[in-house]
Amino acid sequence: TGRFLSTSGGVGEPLNVGFFAVRPDPRLLQAAEIFAQNITFSEKTGWASSGFKPSGGYFVGAECGQGYFHTLFYQKKSTKAQ
What we know:
Elements: E1 4-7, E2 16-22, H1 26-36, E3 41-42, E4 46-47, H2 65-74
Antiparallel strand pairs: 1-2, 3-4
């Protein structure tokens, strides 16, 4: 959709899901729904075993929206997020 507006995280979090905005687009909703299918979260490996980069490991909120959307939008090496 072209634009993603967000705030950076606090101490150790790469993304603060308290504020982020995207232009409404059914393709983005579909991508989030497809990503959510058949993936799990682990405190050791993150969402879909994609890791936590740029954080050195688990961060506050990694298991919820902050980590989910960070993985979906930024973890380019994640085969599930692609």
